[in-house]
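ARCHIVE CARD
Drawer: 12
Card no.: 0347
Subject: one protein chain, sequence and derived structure
Cross-reference: see card 0346
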Amino acid sequence: MSAIHPRILCVDDEPRILEGIALHLRKDYEVHSACSGDEALKKLREMKNVHVIVSDMRMPGMDGATLLAQVMAIYPDITRILLTGEVGRDAAVNAVNRGNIFRFLTKPCPPDQLKSAVEAGVIQHRVVMAEREMLQETVLGCIKALIDVLAITSPVAFGRASRVKRLAMEFSAVCGAAEYWQLEAAAMLSQVGYLSLPSELVDKVYYGEPLSADEQIMVSGAPTVAIRLLDHIPRLEPVMQILTALTWTDEQIARLGDGTIGLATRTLAMVLEYDSIVTQGHPVGTGLQTLRAHSSRYGATLVQRFAEHLGGGSSGREVREMSLRAVQPGMTIMQDLRTSMGTLLVPRGFEVTPTFLERIRNYGPDLLAEKIKVLVPAGS
């Protein structure tokens, strides 16, 4: 089958129905089939670029509404169509609400009606993917530029944002969600609120120094400042949900479930806590032990997968020593870098950007010749 054909997954416990659907669709689509909800989820984990899933409602074990609700949570870009012999209004409303169904078709479904629904589903998938591309190329690009510029104002805060984003996205890629733009944007923006704090207070927070009662109040208000600053930026609604949920209780976060927002919130909150611990000089083991103690907030499975990810290294990266003059975009500085006057230029964990390279040209040759440790991407 040509790669240009959209990929469709059909789910029904009756093989003859699957054969009939495939017969009507295979001329224009790459059709795959599954005989149960569990088999469908397994195939989705193995396949990529599935455009549409068409599922029967009544199946042994997992019914179609439950399956499509799980697909919505795990693979929200896939268009979901429910095919059923049940015509009751309550059943239809329940299925649509649970799985955000794109089309609800009743059996027996005429072939032309089925093909029309699948075609519309493919178009819907392409619209969703085009919007994602727009978000990645415009919204995320603007956020990256904003963070790059603001790093000059608060290098400690935005050095942490750089570390957290890198670790969160490396971990999400291991979990099979490499293009998790909501998480990437939330990680980059997670430290924006600290711009409202004096730089001396930001340093105390990140290095774990004791805070006075007044300082505690100022720090606790930083997330609210960030939300207020970002509230009017279009297309950032899911990112705002994640940042807002970071301040919630364990029980509130648990109620978010395993959907895009829930998983991103738990991942980001977990990485933020881990970074805070290791930044203060504690070993990795202490950080993981603390996360396990808070497994009710993050989920024991997520913490275990994070521990396994850290145990496997940094995705093929290696630490090298080189002069500051030789660093390139994408490398990560692994030590605090200060000017000859003692001013912090960038903190440990800062990811080198083109703007940073332009900035260091303003400093003297002694700084440029200084040897530093950097984390280099694989293959560099």
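Annotation on reverse: The radius of gyration is 24 Å. The first helix runs from residue 15 to 25.
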